[in-house]
Design goal:
mainly alpha; 56% helix
């Protein structure tokens, strides 16, 4: 996924910022959480190298800062990072924003739900707004012919998202 604006973060950067939101930690611990079997990685996974790159990007943008060091297990020190006040505010704002496209529900919306739960951020109103958007899409899809396989896929996907949001 490429950036479309200089201030836009990639999903991996949001995942790292969300991992730092509750408490300071080091990159190695975040990388573990972003492994495919990690608590965040089961939604959005990244390699250790990409995790460290994302943390560098966040630090360069002033959303994360170094707050100390601790000894590493295999030698060398681990740098302890924390989300800055600006980083925490940006994350809360992002978590409160519905996803723009139905295709982003599996990645972006699910990541928002998982991070909001872990960070203790209430996203009830965002989920209600998201449901309204998806319901409008379902209504629009219902206006089209049912013999177009792509339109059928989109309509059924949107209905499934509605069902998921209602279950929440």
């Amino acid at each position: 996924m490429a950036r479309t604006r200089d201030d836009q973060l990639l999903l991996g950067e949001w995942a790292c910022l969300g991992a730092l939101y509750p408490a300071p930690t080091h990159g190695f611990a975040i990388a573990g959480r972003l492994k495919p079997d990690g608590d965040i990685g089961r939604v959005w996974s990244m390699s250790r190298a990409l995790t460290y790159r994302a943390l560098d990007q966040l630090t360069g943008r002033g959303l994360v800062q170094v707050v100390g060091e601790e000894p590493g297990i295999a030698g060398g020190n681990r740098t302890i990072l924390t989300a800055t006040r600006a980083g925490r505010a940006r994350l809360r704002q992002w978590l409160q924003t519905p996803v723009a496209h139905l295709r982003d529900v599996r990645s972006e919306l699910l990541l928002k739900i998982v991070l909001a739960e872990q960070c203790g951020v209430d996203i009830t109103s965002m989920l209600a707004d998201q449901r309204e958007r998806v319901a409008a899409q379902v209504a629009a899809f219902d206006q089209h012919e049912h013999d177009d396989v792509v339109m059928m896929w989109r309509r059924e996907s949107a209905r499934s998202v509605l069902h998921f949001l209602d279950a929440l």
